[in-house]
Amino acid sequence: MNRIIPHLATVLLMAYPIAAAPLHATANEAKPNVIVIMTDDQGYGEFSCHGNPIVQTTNIDKLASQSIRLTDFHVAPMCTPTRGQLMTGLDAFRNAAINVSSGRTLLRHDAKTIADVFGNAGYRTGIFGKWHLGDNYPFRPEDRGFDEAVWFPSSHINSVPDYWDNDYFDDVYIHNGKRERYNGYCTDVFFDEAQKWIGQDADQPFFAYIATNAAHWPWFVPDQYRQPIRDAIGQHPEVVDHLSETKIESLVSFLAMGANIDDNVGGLDRFLTEKGLLENTIIVFLTDNGSTMGPDYFNAGMRGKKTQLWEGGHRVPCFIRWPAGPIANPKDVDELCQVQDLLPTLADLAGIANVPDELDGISLAPLIRGQRESLDDRMLVINYSRMPTFKVGFTKGNPAVPQKNGAGVLWKQWRLLENRQLYNIDNDPHQDHNVAAQHPKVVAKMRSHLDQWWDGVKDDVNTPQRVVIGSDQENPMLLTACEWLDVFVDQQIQVRHAVLKDGVWHLNVAQAGTYELELRRWPRESKFRLQAAVPETPVTDGVYVAGKSLPIHSARLRIADTETKLMPDDDGQSFTTSVQLNEGPLELQATLLDAQGDPICGAYYVYVNRRTP
Asked: What is the pTM of this model?
């Protein structure tokens, strides 16, 4: 029942006939190591094993040929919800990480993570790359069970809270709470740092999460990866002949980033082989949402892309390999499953019994071991908070606010979208024909499930998660516009363009005391003055746009019901004030004003420091 690529298994066997031989049937007595690789914005069709007409992802194809391949595997159509579901085994509306920005990326602070589960079972735990579940305490990866964390904040490199003008090459990342500069291209750095960390201790099992920012925009990549993609496009011009030259060049860079990922997957396999770790290491490969480029050139027969409820927005590859493990021979598994299933599945495969109660995901280990051919009947719900600017049909309000009717319900071959459209993807894989009117009983059954699901999440999903200020765990600290509730300011290009938005931070004060607040339009490391017009900035593989000047004269700080007007500091870069804060929740807003005292926009950056006696 492989609806997208009917002959995937045949393609893999032709490419790698040796992989069809049975793998080891008995596990090493040692606990298995686990590596989860998650790439960004690559869809189901971005791999040659899934029929891509342009790229040759040789190493990922080989991994697939040696794996249990979950062919009806689903994530969220946006990266934060997927990542939160992977970490917790919970639906996004239950774990609170439901949007890529807008104050709704924060993974519920009391939810146990997969790093907690493996760490409590005696594993070393490390993350390398993209986290996107909170930039401040208590939401950072080092707060959530990871012993080693090399990561960057928010959604992508060059996001608002990222180090200013990071450009994928020789960037500054966060290493266990402190900024450090790393040499090399981002994807290479994350795989290299993971391998260095893995090699530090041969006696303790490890759980490593390698989460690339590639192939997320901006599409920066070492230039040598582009020409083979151009050559391949030249052999298949019919794939792109409807695209503009600019769009083709973007596609070239996007696919070149994927080629670099493929090289790193091959390098990881060589490293594990050299270290004698390959046989007893479980590798999981998946992507975080549907493709950003797929509908433009190849989408494996599906409709839709990232951010959309169509199948192409959330059906992604998932390969699970354990060469020495007691699992079935490589094969396609067509059962309906989701990213929430990976936490209980990997814990089960590793023999870890102490997992959180009442997970939304289930263990797929019986399928992977070959003990079962199918799962019990199940329905899945996909729901997430959209960008505030999205035009949607399920609400006239701000689509960032969670809504029941923003969901997709999945059951067998049926897809109920936005509680109104029904598709049978066995008969209609491209989802062109709404058959809700012809199948009222199916709609009623799926709608009933959605109602019950919504009743279980509606009371908590709109409760904002609060960044903690003044904690000994992170003081001083930086707040950015990424956490303005239901307002989207996530990219440094928005800061350069001077997007005229303002928002509120929902905070929790850890300790009463004197707090110094420093309001800025630009981050400290830029050293720009408040009214600066930043020139166009050449970077390693592109150019960052010029920054617009703003007529900033003063600022207004609102804390709860108290307002304070501020004048610029002597250096002209910031507004600084000291305030007394009590312990507990508060709302904070910092607004930049013109000479008439009228609001311009919010201060994109606020530095917070609790003064200690």
From this structure: 0.95
